[in-house]
Amino acid sequence: MAEGTVTSLRIDSPEFERLLDCREAALLLKVHPETVKRMARRGDLAAVKFGKIWRFRVSALEACVRQMTQHSRFAADENVALSKPAVCAVRNRRV
Asked: Which of 24, 32, 50, 72: CA 20 to 30 A from 41?
């Protein structure tokens, strides 16, 4: 592709992953929408903000849940008490 050339990307194309709003992400995670917003503000969930609206990729939410459950399983298997919650952070990963 030449520099400065714009290619059309359709929303229904396989390259474009649908973005969820706070309500949809909250339904998927089974938490309150305000919890999702708070986690996004803190950087605990990967999200993008367009104006006042937070948007979430399904794949990023799924990856976060996998990481949290994997960490929880490790702690349960090893009888290790977690001193800090396992969260997915955009900027850094906290455990």
From this structure: 72
